Amino acid sequence: MGKVFIKPDRWKMYYRQTFREIESLGLNSIGIVIIISIFMGAVITLQTRYNLENPLIPLYLIGLTARDTMLLEFSSTIVGLILAGKVGSNIASEIGHMRITEQIDALEVMGVNSAGYLILPKVTAAVLFNPLLTILSMFVGVFGGWLACISTGALTSTDYIYGIQYWFVPFYITYSVIKTIVFAIIITTVPAYFGYNVKGGALEVGHSSTRGVVTSSILILLFNVILTQLLLAK
Questions:
Q1: Structural contact between residues 128 and 22, judged by C-beta atoms closer than 8 angstroms
Q2: Residue 130 in contact with residue 26, Cβ under 8 Å?
Q3: Structural domain count, the chain
Q4: Would 213 be classed as within a structural domain?
Q5: Is residue 6 in some structural domain?
Q6: Which of 79, 80, 81 lies closest to 37, judged by CA?
Q7: Which domain holds residue 60?
Q8: What is the pTM (predicted TM-score) of this model?
Q9: Which secondary structure element, helix H or strand E, spans residue 76, and what is its range?
Q10: pLDDT per position as a tens digit, 39-87
Q11: Could you give the residue ranges of the DSSP H alpha helices within the chain?
C-alpha cells in the first residue's frame, strides 16, 4: 500500500482516472443511498413514536431523535457499511481480475506504478464524493421520517419539523464527515489490497472480494468506536 500514496507519474492520467472513479464509485451509488436513507429515517421515526409512551415527554423530541440518529450514526456508518459491500466488492473483483490476467504485470513492465495508477484514483474519488453521499443521506433520511409521519399519522408535521429544528449541533455534521472520510479510505484500500495480492484463478478472486468486504466492514465498526471516543468524548 505504500506504493499507492506517492506522487503520480502522470498527473493528466491521474486526473482523468479520478473522474472516472467518481462516476463509478460515487455517482452510481446515489440511488442505493437515497433508498436506504428514506427507509432508515422512516423506521427510526416510527419506532421512536410507537415506543414513546410517557406522556411527560414532548412529541417533538421524536423529530430530534430521528435527526440526531441520522446525523451521528446512520448516514455515516450504515451507509459506509453498505458502500463497503457494493464498492468494496467491485474494487476487489476488478483489481483481482487484472492480477490473474496479468494486466498489472503488463503495467509494471511498461514502467507504470500499477498500485498508484489503479488504487490512488479510487481513494481520491471516495474521499471527495463519499462525504457528499453522507450529507445527502442526512437530508433524505430526515425527509423520510417526515414522510412516515404524514403518511401514517403517527406524528403531526408541525411537531416533527419543530423537533428537527430544536437544539441543532452543527458539529454533528463535521463529526459524520470526518468519519466518512476515514471510512472512504478503508472502503477503497482494504479491498484493493486483497485484490492486488490475489493468487490463482477466478475462484480466488471471489474469495479475495469476500475477505476484502468482511475486513473493511470490521475496520469500519472498529474505527467508528475509536472516532466516536476521540471526537465526542468530553
A1: yes
A2: yes
A3: 1
A4: yes
A5: no
A6: 79
A7: 11-232
A8: 0.89
A9: none
A10: 999 999 998 888 877 777 788 888 899 999 999 888 899 889 999 988 9
A11: 11-21, 30-50, 61-69, 79-100, 103-109, 114-152, 157-165, 171-196, 202-232
